[in-house]
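Exercise (ungraded).
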Amino acid sequence: MTVHALVRRLCGTFAVGVALSGALSACAPIEPWVKPYERENLADPVMAFDRFPVSTAYLDHVFEAREGARGATGNAGGGCGCN
Amino acid sequence: MQLMMRTWTAVLGALLLAPLASAGVLPDDRADVLYHRYDGGGVVIDGPSLLVRKKFADKVSVAANYYVDLVSSASIDVVSTASPYKEERTQYSVTADYLRGKSTYSAGYISSSESDYDAKTWYAGVSQDMFGDLTTISFSFKRGNNDIFRNIGGGKDPTFQRASDTRSYAVGITQVLTRSLIGIANFEVISDEGYLNSPYRSVRYFDPSDPKGYTYQGEVYPNTRTSNAASLKLNYFLPWRASLNGWYRFYTDSWGVNAHTGEVSYTQPAWDRWTFTGSLRYYKQDAADFYADLFPRRNYANFLARDKELSTFTALTFGIGASYDFRIARLPWVEKAQANLRYNFMTISYDDFRDVRASVAVPGTEPLYKLDASIYQVFLSIWF
């Protein structure tokens, strides 16, 4: 797979996801478009948002000490008091 | 000394609550031992971090962390107006997550102390899975109380004690987008009130009567600060079993600091037991409204800052990492063990912060300061 094809695939899947989110939010009931048995890729350890919690926390610490910005670091599964 | 005083809660909060990407599942039992070392700009900070997380009855997960920073500083700020120093900061924290159906309730407490700064923070949050577990929504609140002191001549100045208060409100959404793509959006508001500057740092201003052409006075910050940060992170599974991760954050605050952060990383397993990671992080910010490298005169404005973290600068950070999975035959209760090495190189180019160690005829024409730092991490993780 070429890089160009990969980028196209990424953009395509993202657009589909966003479109589905919007469409499904307007309908009821909402049907999961990714079934539990279709989440093998998402469950792979390489897809974990934070494989190394101690290490990530340390790096966040370093960056926040050196930079003016803070918060919403995105390592914590959605604003769970951890940014 | 107060080098990292703004960061306690960010660090431990992320550390303890990060596994809750899915509200309906408690994180695995694990223990991590890490050695960290930061070396750059005349500052060396190293020390250990220890995390233990344990589930009880598949309903409650409790985590505890112990973290130490051993600081040896001869930074540009210190050598300009003070003397090199050594300092130790110790941090303890504990958190508990309670799973009930598709909701997870979390609460925690963090305590950080050093000779001239004490911080105590508590937080509470809730996460909820919905829409067939494709979506997780989280809310949290955090509050911190800080006591600031000043060391002089090897002891604490009995005449100086200040306080500040920090509150954080955060909301986030984790969304499964396709079979191979997941995203997280976060928004966080943080407000500070109280004594927010450093009792040691100074600003410089033109002074024709001084042989150098300038001299110093103490910095003066506003007593309040409110910041807004919004971020989006996407993680994509590649067909050859690897992952590509992208992150962007926009930041703005009431001091006039606007910042953009972007990061991409790539993770690739290899040879059964190894996993390699590479990353590139870009950061750019504008200076605070009351920042200047050299003020025209003493007491030039109500608020005065010469903290390089409030100046205009661009930072690039390159990272590499390797993980090795193994088992420990003598410890059958250990399901998996993992050894990790990570190295990051950070380079920061300041646009309006000058290196006053250089001797020049005209103040304000010194070369711009540049900071390079190496960040090392060695850690061992076990799951049980």
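Further reading is listed at the end of the chapter. For now, observe: Chain A touches chain B through 62 residues (CB under 8 Å). Helices of chain A lie at 3-25, 40-43, 53-66.
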